[in-house]
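Researcher: Next entry in the queue.
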Amino acid sequence: MARAKICVIIPAYNEEKVIQFSLVALKRIIDRKNIYVVCDGSTDKTADLARQKSVNVMALRKNIGKSSALKKLILTRKLTKRYQYILFSDADSLLDKNFLKEIKKFLRKKPALILGTVDSQKKGLVSAFRTYEYALGHFVYKKAQNIMGLVTVAPGCASIYRNDVLEKINFNNKTVTEDFDFTIQIHHKRLGKIIYVPKAVSQTQDPLTIYDYWRQILRWYTGTWQNIFLHQLYKPTSKFNLEIYFLMLDNIIIISALSLIFIRPILFLQYILFMSITIMLISSLIALIQKKLWITFYAPLFPIFYAINIFAYISSFFRTIIWRNELFIWNKVRRYSS
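Model: Structure for this entry, 338 residues:
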């Protein structure tokens, strides 16, 4: 295909601590004229700091939510008419200098969506667990999904969409995980192929505290349940829906194991010991392969995060049932300077 014209969009809400770091990284790989920031009713200096980097800035007076802000920018600036592909990134993410170079290798196939790999910025306990989790999620699950053509979630910080696909996607769905929502729509509407590119890396901030981790994972799981109900993913009507069943199986097994506390406590303790040893071995292997030996220091604490995840998984289910029609706005975790 002819040389594709690409732009980047960063949706932002109170991102003054990180926005300039993100834009500096972006300007290394794409002309500033093709970088757009939509500031969604921020009450801090996000818009002013973005303007200092000489990129395109749309500052909304009222907070309308991430998905709606993206839609407003795309329509107002007519981006799908001016660009062949639109890359979504986040204000706390740093795209690798070779990100677009790796992505462009696959544009000739004219995919509906290309997604990269999310990596953690090294920052303590939570980032250590995320490094472990991302390694499994991307280099095992997503690679397998890519082969089967069943990629389930395109990360909001590292996804590039074909212009006509964005014109057919509904931005008005009430979910807090628009990246999952958009990916589902591409599958269900048969808008084209989704390709995963492991070497296109985006480094993102992780929560600094357990409390912020809890808030983030609760939001992610809430969005997951919202999309399951919205798109009726509980119905075994397609291969994509069956893949969601498979991904949910892991949590269901762990929840089932919890019942052993009341039935056979000794079996529950044996299960916890088995899980801990398995996590230690896998995290050590990941540390060696990725040359991130620092995560092994935190590995003994990783089972704690599994407990948090399960509690968030269950809590978000009931939260979604009770407030099923509620529109959740940003609800992001605290940022810190990169």
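Model: Residues 226-322 form one domain.
Researcher: Noted, moving on.
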